[in-house]
């Protein structure tokens, strides 16, 4: 009497070989009393083996589907996103204006003493500028306590005089007020500013300054004051604290991915004062969106220099921004990947995942079969 176990069929579950199997028991000359207990144990073992294989195959299939779905959405997002292409060419633009966006805070200077000058490459003040600048009075803890609108930041009465960065800007007003002879308005001005300094007032200057598209500079300082009034207020140029925070400085509208290197710049003076000079190289830029819309703007690079001022120096502290233009313009164009490129990558990742899960399924089936085969043989004995 002998019993023989033969494999009659292998079923593919979830498209994988070796997950479910069906077995047939053939016997000859064996009594029913011997066969029934043996068949019960054998069938129970076969069912347990079938459940283990089905669970492992289902697990591999589910993991494969999750991976394929994740890769599909990743490829779809990659296809729908845009990338940029940079091109350079000679700048041919002429006769345009340059918008300068300013947003700065001077925590140690009241708004009454701050002024802004804009000068072109000829060394003269620009006049009739279309300015839109605001000054915000700040308390000692940074809260806004008042505003002042500057309809024209350029002092037109000095427009005809040459401007030299290395000379004292206050010498032009020597003829207005003689030493120790101040009128009532000047005395009130001195008293008001000294009170603001004692209270720790600061000033925030922000807005847009339109200048001609030529090399030049603009600076924020106390140069708008008469030299004798400034001397009475600060008791020397070395006591003018031009500590500042640059929240935003740009030369045109912003486009996606632009980086303005001076944004967030913090310069706090702890000792002697001095002049901050930022040398800026402006690069004309055109940004072309995927919708064919063109945005003209500017990028820039910057280097910084600080010149300390001693007690006997005749120069007064200021924050200078000296800019020049690059002869090269940069065109940034948004583009999208082709649909054929998307299909090719999609087939590659999905096909690769399918093949990998198939191999993993076969390896798991063979491992389980190798582990459970000795147990089946012991049952037949």
Automatic annotation (TrEMBL):
One Pfam family in the UniProt entry: COPIIcoated_ERV
Residues covered by the Endoplasmic reticulum vesicle transporter C-terminal domain: 186-361
Main location: membrane
Annotated compartments: Membrane
Bilayer-crossing regions: 58-80
Membrane topology category: Multi-pass membrane protein
Keywords carried by this UniProt record: Membrane, Transmembrane, Transmembrane helix
Annotated Endoplasmic reticulum vesicle transporter N-terminal domain residues: 49-126
Superkingdom of this protein's organism: Eukaryota
GO-annotated cellular components: COPII-coated ER to Golgi transport vesicle; endoplasmic reticulum; membrane
Alphabetized InterPro entries for the sequence: Erv, Erv_C, Erv_N
PANTHER family: ENDOPLASMIC RETICULUM-GOLGI INTERMEDIATE COMPARTMENT PROTEIN, ENDOPLASMIC RETICULUM-GOLGI INTERMEDIATE COMPARTMENT PROTEIN 3
Similarity annotation: Belongs to the ERGIC family.
Name of the protein this chain belongs to: Endoplasmic reticulum-Golgi intermediate compartment protein 3
